[in-house]
Amino acid sequence: MYGQILTHKDGKTVKILSHHQDIYIISNPNDHTNAIDRNYTKQDLIALGWIFPVEKWTPERGMTYFIPHVSYESKYDFHIWTNDELGNLQLANNLVCRTKEEAIALTDKMLGAVTNKQINK
After folding, report:
1. What pLDDT was estimated at residue 20?
2. What's the start-to-end Cα distance of the chain, in Å?
3. pLDDT tens sequence across 28-56
4. Are the C-beta atoms of 96 and 90 separated by less than 8 Å?
5. Can you tell me the distance from the alpha carbon of 61 to that of 79, in angstroms, rounded to the nearest whole number?
6. How far apart are CA 87 and CA 13, in angstroms?
């Protein structure tokens, strides 16, 4: 995780300057050399709108997984992994998430991309 760039749903970026156990120290937005004077957990950062790259992960058979969903108010859906065609298509397109928070962050990223594209027309 050290050195990884996170993107905020509004387009700002930060760099992970340190990561130990579940604690992250990040840079100031768009200034990747100076740290913010605060520690965060991954859940804190996701709740604040920072988007972690989705780690490719394959659930085990019978396991619950989450996917982004742009038309549900909750912004996510969940399925049970059966290694079927739909699940494998979702996996191939990097849509399979371990948690609903990751799926929501991915939904926000998708919606932000659509909004930014419409604004830049």
Report:
1. 87
2. 35
3. 987 888 998 899 998 899 889 888 876 67
4. yes
5. 11
6. 31
Q: Which residues of 62-93 are buried (b: 16+ CB within 10 A; e: fewer)?
A: eeebbbbbeeeeebbeebebeeeeebeebbee
Q: Note the helical H segments in the chain.
A: 42-47, 85-92, 100-119
Instruction: Provide the greatest CA pair distance for the chain.
Output: 46
pLDDT digits (tens, 9 = 90+) for 87-111: 999 998 889 999 999 899 889 888 8
Enumerate the domain spans of the chain.
5-51, 64-119
d(CA 29, CA 82): 41
Write down how long the chain is.
121
What is each CA distance from 40 to 10, 71, 85, 105, 118, in whole angstroms?
Answer: 19, 30, 38, 17, 33
